[in-house]
Specification:
CATH architecture: 3-Layer(aba) Sandwich
Number of helices: 7
Shape: globular
Largest sheet: 11 strands, mixed
Number of strands: 13
CATH class: Alpha Beta
Oligomer: single chain
Structural class: alpha+beta
CATH superfamily: Gcn5-related N-acetyltransferase (GNAT)
Radius of gyration: 20 Å
Distance between the termini: 35 Å
Strand content: 25-35%
Length: 320
């Protein structure tokens, strides 16, 4: 007899759900869960509305540089829902609506000869990617992002005990010090609170071009380590506004990383875009030891949210 969808999810995502339960117990009115396993979200209409609301959550709460994040529409959130665990922090309001406080998605890939992820094209590599971590703007409940990182990193440390061949990575626009701060803050929190050996390190960067023209800023590729302390020299990435902004950023990266020896790029097509991944020969750059100075390169591209389609979601009741 086949297990139901939610039972299969609960088994596959057991470490994540266990960590969500543990963190939920620290709060009186906040729930952390893998939404595919959450008994509050089993009604098909509730799920549809929830996925729309998650898309709106990204739209409404990402108000920074438009380049830093690709806002997922409802179709993309649905695609993620069907493929990957989505971790969400939420609370029930006085009228039983759902108030989303934070979201993240944990993706996993396996590179083969026929199917290679262009953003981390290490041959035959299996890896998890921590992506889309976002928390509610001006929330009265603090540290939701740190707690989501704690859930992800702790669970991934357990997964890697049985899946040691999997890397754990995340990516961030080279100017996006907020995302970098979040990742290293999550690892630092676990070191300080639980005496872990969790560190993040820069292992390379990638570029995206269309017909030879850069279409976005270079993006750092970072990797989490769970066993060995990473010691590295301080590196400052001080970007400058240039006539060709993105090309100028690549020049800054190359100059700042000169001592780490950048390997020749590996180029792969992603639809119409040419993605080139540049791995570092010396990949021991601790996130704790880097400083990012945007110097105005992050200005002038602020997001304007689109019109919301948010639906009311009630636990144990009808949805509007």
């Amino acid at each position: 007899m086949k297990m139901r969808f939610f039972e299969r999810c609960a088994r596959s995502y057991s470490y994540l759900t266990n960590m969500c339960t543990q963190i939920t117990n620290e709060y009186s009115n906040v729930t952390f869960s893998v939404i595919q396993c959450d008994p509050n979200f089993r009604n098909p209409l509730t799920i549809v509305n929830l996925l729309k609301n998650i898309s709106d959550f990204y739209n409404e709460n990402w108000l920074g540089n438009a380049d830093y994040i690709h806002i997922p529409d409802a179709k993309k959130v649905l695609d993620n829902y069907l493929k990957y665990p989505i971790i969400m922090a939420y609370r029930k309001t006085s009228d039983d609506d759902i108030d989303i406080l934070g979201v993240a998605t944990l993706k996993y890939y396996q590179n083969t000869e026929k199917d290679v992820n262009p953003y981390y094209p290490i041959p035959n590599k299996k890896f998890f990617e921590v992506t889309g971590i976002l928390t509610k703007q001006d929330s009265d409940i603090k540290n939701i992002g740190k707690k989501i990182y704690e859930i992800l990193i702790e669970a991934l440390e357990e997964y890697r005990k049985i899946l040691p061949e999997f890397d754990v990575i995340f990516v961030a626009d080279c100017r996006n010090y907020m995302s970098i701060n979040g990742a290293r803050g999550g690892a630092r929190y676990l070191r300080e609170q639980y005496n872990k050996e969790d560190y993040g390190k820069i292992i390379g960067f990638y570029t995206v071009r269309n017909q030879g023209k850069l279409v976005e800023a270079p993006t750092f590729v970072a990797k989490f380590e769970f066993e060995n302390k990473i010691v590295s020299n301080d590196i400052t990435f001080a970007f400058e506004v240039t006539d060709d902004l993105y090309e100028g950023m690549i020049e800054t990266l190359r100059n700042s990383l000169a001592g780490n020896q950048i390997k020749p790029g590996v180029s792969t097509m992603d639809e119409e875009y040419n993605v080139t991944f540049y791995e570092l020969e010396d990949d021991s750059i601790n996130l704790d030891n880097i400083t990012i100075i945007p110097n105005g390169t992050d200005k002038g591209n602020e997001r304007i949210p689109w019109a919301s389609t948010r639906k009311r979601i009630r636990i144990g009741g009808s949805n509007e």
